[in-house]
């Protein structure tokens, strides 16, 4: 097993990608702390893990609240004795609007969750990590190409990639690796509204593979970066977009 004797925290662990990743981590031997703002969704992930006779626990966590993040870290360390992996995955999308129409409140909410939440995860987990640990942050291809009508989302995800490089540089000497994944369009609840529009036939095939991705395909990439198989990779963003950026 690639993650035997490891302890992982998965934020946003009640969402589609978070749940798929938490399950993959558990299947590969990790004990998983599932963190999510939704108790219902987070506990659903924990039940799925325990049904496979693996270890998991849940803590309700608002990643914009420093006290919640500290509690998440302390509970993971108390229950499982160590923290080896953090998947900094919690995030939200943004309503499609041109920049002049985006309110400051909308902008700040996306930034608070998508980048400040990632920062807080790094800030409070890194002191608990030892040599050989790994952190993976969720970015997006929107942060690479500046997707129109979602200025806050694109800016927040671009910031995630920059913060990933900074953290990797700061903690490389301690052999703690920090990477990111940048998914394209993945079949999650975040794209449910898009499926109802006449743009969906185009959006759903707008890549080299002519289909959208699956949460499990993102999870497999995160698993690779979390494992020792990626032991000489840090500060990088792994694109998981079916070739969207290539066309």
Structural summary, described in words:
- It is a single chain.
- By secondary structure, this protein is α/β, with parallel strands linked by helices.
- The chain has a single domain, classed as 3-Layer(aba) Sandwich (Rossmann fold), CATH 3.40.50.
- The protein is built from eight helices and seven strands.
- Strand 4 (85-88), helix 4 (104-125) and strand 5 form a beta-alpha-beta unit.
- Helix 1 (16-27) runs parallel beside helix 2 (39-50), helix 1 crosses helix 8 and helix 4 runs parallel beside helix 6 (151-171).
- It is globular.
Number of helices: 8
Average the pLDDT over all residues and give the rounded result: 96
The CATH first-level class comes to Alpha Beta
Strand order of the largest sheet: 3-2-1-4-5-6-7
CATH architecture: 3-Layer(aba) Sandwich
What is the number of E strands? 7
User: What share of the residues lie within helices?
Assistant: 40-55%
Q: Write down the CATH topology.
A: Rossmann fold
**Residue windows where pLDDT falls under 50 for at least 5 positions:** none
Please state the structural category: alpha/beta
Shape: globular
Number of domains: 1
Under CATH, the homologous superfamily reads NAD(P)-binding Rossmann-like Domain
Order of helices and strands: EHEHEHEHEHHEHHE
As a percent range, the share of strand residues is: 5-15%
N-to-C CA distance: 37 Å
Q: What layout of secondary structure does this protein have?
A:
Layout: E1 7-11, H1 16-27, E2 31-36, H2 39-50, E3 56-60, H3 66-80, E4 85-88, H4 104-125, E5 134-138, H5 142-145, H6 151-171, E6 177-183, H7 200-203, H8 215-226, E7 237-240
Parallel strand pairs: 1-2, 1-4, 2-3, 4-5, 5-6, 6-7
Helix pairs in contact: 1-2, 1-8, 3-4, 4-6
């Amino acid at each position: 097993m690639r993650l035997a004797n490891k302890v992982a925290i998965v934020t946003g662990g009640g969402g589609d990608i978070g749940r798929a990743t938490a399950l993959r981590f558990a299947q590969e031997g990790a004990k998983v702390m599932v963190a999510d703002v939704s108790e219902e969704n987070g506990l659903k992930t924990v039940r799925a893990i325990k049904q496979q006779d693996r270890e998991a626990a849940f803590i309700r966590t608002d990643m914009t609240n420093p006290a919640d993040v500290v509690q998440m870290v302390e509970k993971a360390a108390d229950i499982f004795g160590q923290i080896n992996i953090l998947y900094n995955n919690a995030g939200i999308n943004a309503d499609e609007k041109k920049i002049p129409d985006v309110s400051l409140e909308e902008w700040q909410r996306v930034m608070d969750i998508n980048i400040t939440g990632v920062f807080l995860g790094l800030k409070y987990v890194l002191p608990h990590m030892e040599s050989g640990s790994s952190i993976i942050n969720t970015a997006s291809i929107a942060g690479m190409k500046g997707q129109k009508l979602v200025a806050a989302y694109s800016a927040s995800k671009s910031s995630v990639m920059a913060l990933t490089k900074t953290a990797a540089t700061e903690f490389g000497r301690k052999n703690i690796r920090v990477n990111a994944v940048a998914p394209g369009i993945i079949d999650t609840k975040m794209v449910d509204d898009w499926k109802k529009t006449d743009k969906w036939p185009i959006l759903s095939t707008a890549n080299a593979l002519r289909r959208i991705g699956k949460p499990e395909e993102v999870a497999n990439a995160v698993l690779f970066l979390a494992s020792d198989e990626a032991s000489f990779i840090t500060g990088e963003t792994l694109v998981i977009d079916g070739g969207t950026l290539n066309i």
